[in-house]
C-alpha cells in the first residue's frame, strides 16, 4: 500500500477515528541553523485490516496540523514505536508541547535483548527482517516543498518495518524477562525530553577545561551557562553564539575591562562582538551554585587502575547478561561514578541493581 501524503488536518483526524493500540512513529527535522530541531515531516505507521503497515506522511508545516497531531502524541493508550528517538522527542516537545509516550525504542530493545548495541535503523531492519534499505536521502532538505518521490519513499521506509521489529523484540524481551528494563529506560528518555534543560556542568566534559585552574574553570562555566540560555532563547546553535575555543581563551585570560574584552572580540573572526556587554556580565557574575561545580578532571589525574577494575567488572557482568559492550555502563558514566562518588541517574534502576554488588567493593576499597 503506497504511503498517504497528509496535507489536511481533517485527513489526520479521520485516520484516527478508530484508535489504534500502537503506531510506528518517526520524524524528519532540520537543526543546522537553529538550537531547536525544526519539525519538517512526521511519519506514522498504522495497521490495516490485514495487519500490514498503512503509512501516513504528515506535513507539519500546514496550518492546524500540529494541533491535530498533538492529541495522538499525548494519548497514553497508544504505544509509540520509535527508533533512537531522543531528538525526535525534543522536536515534538518544541513543536507540539508534548512528548509521545509510552515509548518502545527499537534501538534500545535491540541492545537489551543482546541483538546489538547502538544499531542504526537500516542495520537493525536488515538484521531482523532481511530487508536491505537504501540510504539515499539522509542529508535531504526536508523543509522544501514539494518533497521528491525519493524523499517520500525514504521517509515511509523509516516506519514501514517498526511493527515487525516491535513484535520480534518484544517477544525476546519477554523471554528474557526484561520488559521492565526497557520500560525504565524508555521512561527516562521521555523524562529527559520533557524536562530538557541545559547541562548543569558543561565545562566538566570539555577536554580543554582540564588544563585550567579552578578560577578559570568557574569563569568558563559562567560563559557556557550563559551561552546555553542565550542559544535556547534565540533559537541559534551554541557555536554561533560563542565557540568553545574563544570561551576557553576568555576564561583562561580574562580581559581587565569591557574595552579589553571588545578588543579581544574584534580580533577574532565570527566572534559575538555585539554581545560584549552580556559576555562581560556573564564572565564576572558568580553563579549561585558554582561552589558545587566539579573540577574538569585531567585523564592523567584519574586513577586508571581503579577505572580499569570497574570496566572489567562491568564487562564481566555484561557477558553474564548477554549485553553488548557499553549498554550496561559506559566509560563516561563510570568516570562520573569515580569522580563524584554518587551513582548518576543514567546508572539508576535495573543497571544499578545489576552492577552494585560487583562495583560496591571496588568503590569502597578505593575510598
Quick summary:
The protein is an alpha/beta fold.
Give an overview of the whole structure.
- There is one protein chain.
- The protein is of the alpha/beta class and 367 residues long.
- The protein has three domains: 4-194, Nucleotidyltransferase, domain 5; 207-292, Orthogonal Bundle (DNA polymerase, domain 1); 302-366, Orthogonal Bundle (DNA polymerase, domain 1), CATH 1.10.150.
- The chain contains 16 helices and six strands.
- The chain has helices at 9-15, 65-74, 86-96, 106-112, 121-129, 149-160, 162-176, 179-194, 214-234, 238-241, 244-252, 258-266, 276-284, 304-321, 331-340, 350-366; strands at 4-6, 22-30, 38-47, 53-58, 79-82, 103-105.
- It has a six-stranded mixed sheet, with helices on both faces.
- Strand 2 and strand 3 (38-47) form a beta hairpin.
- Helix 14 (304-321) packs antiparallel against helix 16 (350-366).
- The longest helix has 21 residues, at 214-234.
- It is globular.
- The N and C termini lie far apart (62 Å).
- The model has no long low-confidence stretch (mean pLDDT 93).
- CATH topology of the largest domain, which one? Nucleotidyltransferase, domain 5
Report the end-to-end length measured between terminal Cα atoms. Answer: 62 Å
The amount of helix comes to: 40-55%
Number of domains: 3
Tell me the layout of helices and strands.
Layout: E1 4-6, H1 9-15, E2 22-30, E3 38-47, E4 53-58, H2 65-74, E5 79-82, H3 86-96, E6 103-105, H4 106-112, H5 121-129, H6 149-160, H7 162-176, H8 179-194, H9 214-234, H10 238-241, H11 244-252, H12 258-266, H13 276-284, H14 304-321, H15 331-340, H16 350-366
Parallel strand pairs: 1-4, 2-5, 5-6
Antiparallel strand pairs: 2-3, 3-4
Helix pairs in contact: 1-2, 3-8, 4-7, 5-7, 9-11, 9-13, 14-16
Amino acid at each position: 500500500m503506497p504511503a498517504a501524503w497528509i496535507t489536511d488536518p481533517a485527513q489526520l483526524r479521520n485516520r484516527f477515528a478508530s484508535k489504534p493500540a500502537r503506531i510506528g512513529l518517526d520524524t524528519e527535522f532540520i537543526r543546522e541553523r537553529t538550537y531547536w530541531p525544526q519539525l519538517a515531516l512526521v511519519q506514522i505507521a498504522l495497521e490495516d485490516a490485514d495487519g500490514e503497515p498503512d503509512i501516513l506522511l504528515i506535513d507539519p508545516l500546514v496550518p492546524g496540523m500540529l494541533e491535530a497531531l498533538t492529541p495522538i502524541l499525548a494519548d497514553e493508550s497508544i504505544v509509540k514505536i520509535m527508533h533512537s528517538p531522543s531528538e525526535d522527542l525534543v522536536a515534538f516537545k518544541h513543536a507540539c508541547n508534548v512528548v509521545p509516550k509510552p515509548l518502545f525504542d527499537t534501538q534500545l530493545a535491540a541492545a537489551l535483548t543482546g541483538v546489538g548495541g547502538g544499531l542504526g535503523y537500516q542495520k537493525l531492519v536488515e538484521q531482523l527482517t532481511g530487508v536491505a534499505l537504501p540510504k539515499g536521502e539522509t542529508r535531504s532538505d526536508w523543509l522544501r516543498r514539494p518533497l521528491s518521490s525519493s524523499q517520500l519513499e525514504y521517509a515511509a521506509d523509516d516506519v514501514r518495518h517498526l511493527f515487525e521489529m516491535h513484535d520480534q523484540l518484544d517477544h525476546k524481551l519477554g523471554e528474557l524477562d526484561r520488559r521492565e528494563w526497557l520500560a525504565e529506560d524508555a521512561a527516562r528518555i521521555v523524562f529527559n525530553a520533557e524536562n530538557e534543560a541545559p547541562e548543569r556542568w558543561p565545562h566538566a566534559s570539555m577536554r580543554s577545561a582540564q588544563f585550567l585552574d579552578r578560577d578559570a574553570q568557574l569563569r568558563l562555566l559562567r560563559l557556557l551557562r550563559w551561552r546555553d540560555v542565550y542559544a535556547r532563547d534565540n533559537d541559534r546553535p551554541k557555536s554561533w553564539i560563542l565557540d568553545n575555543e574563544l570561551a576557553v581563551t576568555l576564561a583562561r585570560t580574562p580581559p581587565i575591562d569591557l574595552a579589553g574584552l571588545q578588543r579581544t572580540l574584534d580580533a577574532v573572526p565570527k566572534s559575538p562582538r555585539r554581545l560584549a556587554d552580556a559576555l562581560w556580565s556573564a564572565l564576572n557574575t558568580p553563579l549561585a551554585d558554582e561552589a558545587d561545580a566539579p573540577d574538569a578532571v585531567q585523564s592523567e589525574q584519574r586513577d586508571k587502575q581503579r577505572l580499569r577494575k570497574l570496566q572489567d567488572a562491568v564487562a564481566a557482568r555484561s557477558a553474564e547478561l548477554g549485553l553488548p559492550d557499553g549498554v550496561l555502563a559506559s566509560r563516561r558514566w563510570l568516570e562520573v561514578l569515580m569522580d563524584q562518588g554518587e551513582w548518576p541517574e543514567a546508572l539508576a534502576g535495573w543497571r544499578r541493581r545489576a552492577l552494585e554488588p560487583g562495583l560496591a567493593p571496588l568503590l569502597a576499597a578505593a575510598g
